[in-house]
Amino acid sequence: MSPILSARGISRCFGSVTALAPSDLDVAPGEVVVLIGPSGSGKSTLLRCLNLLSPPDSGDIHFRAQCITERGVNLNQVRRSIGMVFQQFNLYPHMTALDNVTLALRRVHRMSRENARARGMAALEEVGLVEHHDTHPGKLSGGQQQRVGIARALALEPDIMLFDEPTSALDPELVGEVLSVMRRLRDRKMTMVIVTHEMGFARDVADRVVFMNEGAIIEQGSPEALFTTPSQPRTREFLSRLM
Ligand code: ADP
Ligand code: MG
């Protein structure tokens, strides 16, 4: 199957720091790719390059048939198709859950209030929060706020979802509800690239696990292969520190 997203030689520096060395990544339709690696290894940089939140310094990214790293590409359209969920939920505190979810549809994509509401309610339904559509973020738990964050991305009907440590800011007892929303997305064949430290979850949902270290993709493979018989010393070392 040809990839839905294909990055070739993408890199990113910050001053003298190479956050991401030239890297290749393909994601097939419906595939779940989990990125793991130590803090500072370039996982967030890679994700942010993939949807051009922080465009790569070099290399090309193709999304479907289109080269999205060419000049003149519609960034709003790219970010609508390649959704992103962050560690910090970044919800507007003065707006209801539904208004947070529909804001981009209304403001950026100029959708009518009625259509945006229908989309927003469907997205809240997917994350199990319809009954809280009128609630402000401050009245929701962290897990519920992150589910609103997921609904906000889903409302744009993306073809791919990128998750950057979606449960790292949560109290342990709230992690499960967010992971189960992500499992449901997997079950309905959403294409996803997920950065997480939840290794049990990674093992369970990933079609492929990618290990990064010092801005480079060191090794990748099925969860069984990568977690049980990693081939690279740095992967073994990283995994052994988690056990
Ligand atoms: P990870 O997500 O794996 O923890 P990051 O992609 O956030 O890693 O960071 C990779 C490297 O790039 C780190 O050394 C980090 O300090 C650096 N870096 C990331 N973003 C920036 C930025 N906006 N400005 C300067 N340095 C950055
Ligand atoms: Mg990060």
TrEMBL record:
It is a peripheral membrane protein. The keyword Transport applies. Keywords: Amino-acid transport, ATP-binding, Cell membrane, Membrane, Nucleotide-binding, Transport. GO terms for molecular function: ABC-type amino acid transporter activity; ATP binding; ATP hydrolysis activity. It comes from the Bacteria. Residues 5-239 form the ABC transporter domain. Pfam families: ABC_tran. The keyword Zinc does not apply. Gene3D superfamilies: P-loop containing nucleotide triphosphate hydrolases. SMART domains: AAA (SM00382). It is found in: Cell inner membrane. One of its GO terms (cellular component) is plasma membrane. Belongs to the ABC transporter superfamily. This is Amino acid ABC transporter ATP-binding protein, PAAT family. It comes from Kushneria avicenniae.
